[in-house]
Amino acid sequence: MFIRRQLLLAAGAIAAAASVLPVRAEETVKIGLIVPMTGGQASTGKQIDNAIKLYMQQKGDTVAGKKIEIILRDDAAVPDNTKRIAQELIVNEKVNIIAGFGVTPAALAAAPLATQAKVPEIVMAAGTSIITERSPYIVRTSFTLPQSSTIIGDWAVKNGIKKVATLTSDYAPGNDALTSFKEHFVAGGGEIVEEVKVPLANPDFAPFLQRMKDSKPDAVFVFVPAGQGGNFMKQYAERGLDKSGIRVIGPGDVMDDDLLNNMGDAALGAVTAHLYSAAHPSQINKEFVAAYKKAFNNRPGFMAVGGYDGIHLIYEALKKTGGDATGDKLIAAMKGMKWESPRGPISIDPETRDIVQNIYIRKVEKVDGELYNVEFATFEAVKDPGKTKK
Amino acid sequence: MTTLFTILFDGVAYGMLLFVLACGLAVTLGLMNFVNLAHGAFAMAGGYICAVLVNNSGWPFFVALPLAFIASAAIGVVLERTLYRHLYARSHLDQVLFSIGLVFMSVAAVDYIMGSSRVFIKLPAALEGQFDFFGVGIGRYRLMIIVICGLLTVALQLILARTRFGSRLRAAVDDPRAAIGLGINVPQVFAFTFALGCGLAGLGGALSAEILGLDPYFPLKFMIYFLIVVTVGGSSSITGPFLASLLLGIGDVAGKYYVPKMGPFVIYTIMIVILIWRPNGLFGRTAAR
Question: Which residues of B touch A (CB under 8 A)?
């Protein structure tokens, strides 16, 4: 008798627990954040993670009656890991959205899973043009390399730069940057005097830089992955290219706010085209930079902004669907969404689900003893030229 | 013509740097017959110690350099006494597995403590930039590398060939049992040699931060270069790795300058050709005997 009563109690407790659980599950929206937190790309992951934490701190962790839960996983920028983690998150954790993706191969590895599971994939960092074409569930809040590379090509021919030597890292984003720059620069009447692709794991830029110097260009167009920019600028100055009057131009990745201050004065005067500078003179950006600095004791870079806008997009889409986190509804809500980001006005192209944003031409200058990319020209609402070609 | 000299100069500097980084490995592998893949970890340790001293504690660069040597050597002694010693008699496979494990641990540890972004060492202004020497562009920092590494090479050669310690070491390697019988303290000689190799690696790591870049993956990224130097040079003397380093340094820089499209392959092509021609390296063991 006694035992039976206990059993009944236990069964009741289990039933109660079971009835409570699914209700709670419905009230949370789970976001699987897959970014590199270790390895050479770790700064990307840390910035995105920081920015999302900051956003949720500012806006609260509930939206449209749902609690937002972030599940952070480290893929170390290895695509095999990304795929495995994405699968785990979708199947076991039942996440509603996957987000992050530090490098192009990682974003591509998760694309088929997003399609199959009808889970939105929010790309917050990777920048190769083709990514959004790989799944109808991919939306991007970072940038594409052709966006900034074509603009710097247009700007260079119009501003007295006739001969350019190019130095790009030999991998997909590097080649993307090179082709789109070349197309626009040559079409405008510029001449490429030297074209060098450096291996991705390149220890020493010296011989390549010597070659640049000897070809006597007006400027060097540079794209190297984040992290190598500092090494490049040091050796550029060591070799005296700055004193020979050869300018540095390129997409803004090289002059990432994250690394800029450590490059030293060699970076002064470098002109790059990019989507974001911590020195962007809008009120919303000033507040963002101040809050980010206060929270993490560091300056936000363009990767942080990609993460900040990514989580904003998710929040706004949930508001629009009234908390419905079904993949198709979220994607439909995200298409065509417009808002004011710390980087300036941006929107999601309803056709391609890619980002449309202003590209700024900036020059490295010293502000209050620190190096900043100071914006001096704006190209408004730039779509991804990598796609509009078709 | 002047460009040719600039390329040659850069190549020599790069080669010298490779030599200082790799010669410790040549000693442990060639003289002590121990496969130490974790050699790069000691180089990284030296680099980070120098970076912390200069950047965070404000020490002058030239004081931090010898300290990078001493600290790496000290770490080397401790690890040799506690870990490496037990593996001298084991098979090469065990040694490889052990030392590669050590590499991964060092990578993770440095990543955890120092963060994964690249570290630069703040250089004194006197070492920055290039000066013109009859039209040949000479980088000040690279010139300093050549001077330091050149002196080290001469000193090493003298120590091994002319000093009592050198002859003890060679005796201990050739026949440890007989050497013990003659009253040579073999473990002590080995420990000292190991420390010397680690110290040199540490110094090389500190010097290379400016040129090769310093991050937690340093030991993995450059392991291949060290191994190339030792295989091409042969491991029976210091001269072999030295010449191999110079050859690879100049070959790499010249290849990247003159045929940039083939750039990364040049160093491997040189290695393959030399190894086909002399399978034991330029100054191989069997060739010497």
Answer: 3, 6-7, 10, 14, 111, 115-118, 120, 128-130, 137, 139, 141, 210-213, 215, 217, 221-222, 225, 252-257, 260-261, 263-264
| Residue of A308, A279, A228, A347 whose CA lies nearest to A48 | A308
**pLDDT score recorded for residue A389:** 55
Does residue A188 contact residue A154 with C-beta atoms inside 8 Å? yes
**Residues A141 and A124: beta-carbon distance below 8 Å:** yes
Q: Which two tokens stand for residue A367?
A: 């502000």
In this predicted model, which residue has the larger pLDDT, A84 or B117?
A: A84
B10: nearest CB among A42, A43, A207: A207
Min Cα distance A322 → chain B (Å) is 41
Q: Which of A13-17, A83-87, A109-113 has the lowest mean pLDDT?
A: A13-17
Percent of chain A with pLDDT over 90: 43
For range B261-272, the mean pLDDT: 80
- Six-digit token pair at A103? 């490098």
pLDDT at A56: 94
Average pLDDT over residues A5-19: 55
Q: Which residue of A has its CA nearest to B17?
A: A204
In angstroms, the CA B141 to CA A238 distance is 9
The answer, yes or no, to whether residue B76 has pLDDT greater than 60, is yes
* Three-state DSSP string of chain B: CHHHHHHHHHHHHHHHHHHHHHHHHHHHHHHCCCCCCCHHHHHHHHHHHHHHHHHHCCCCHHHHHHHHHHHHHHHHHHHHHHCHHHHCCCCHHHHHHHHHHHHHHHHHHHHHHHCCCCECCCCCHHHCCEEEECCEEEEHHHHHHHHHHHHHHHHHHHHHHHCHHHHHHHHHHHCHHHHHHCCCCHHHHHHHHHHHHHHHHHHHHHHHHHHHCECCCHHHHHHHHHHHHHHHHCCCCCHHHHHHHHHHHHHHHHHHHHCHHHHHHHHHHHHHHHHHHCCCCCCCHHHHC
- Residue A363: its H or E element: strand A355-367
Phi-psi map region of A161: left, alpha, beta (phi>0 left; psi -120 to 50 alpha) = beta
CA angle A327, A329, A334 (to 5 degrees): 95
pLDDT of residue A11: 56
> What is the separation of C-alpha B68 from the centre of its chain, rounded to a whole number of angstroms?
14
CA distance A264 to chain B (A): 10
Structure tokens, B80? 């040799």
pLDDT tens-digit readout, A200-251: 776 678 888 888 888 889 999 999 876 677 778 888 888 888 778 888 898 8
Asked whether the beta carbons of B267 and B228 are under 8 A apart, the reply is: yes
**Residue B146 exposure: Cα atoms within 13 Å on the Cβ side:** 15
pLDDT tens, position by position, A82-100: 999 999 999 999 999 999 9
Give me the mean pLDDT over the A359-387 stretch. Answer: 87
Indicate yes or no: pTM above 0.90. no
* Strand order, beta sheet including A121-123: A62-63, A66-74, A28-35, A97-100, A121-123, A138-140
Mean pLDDT, residues A176-197 taken together = 89
Above 0.85 for ipTM, yes or no? no
How far is A390 from chain B, CA to nearest CA, in Å? 30
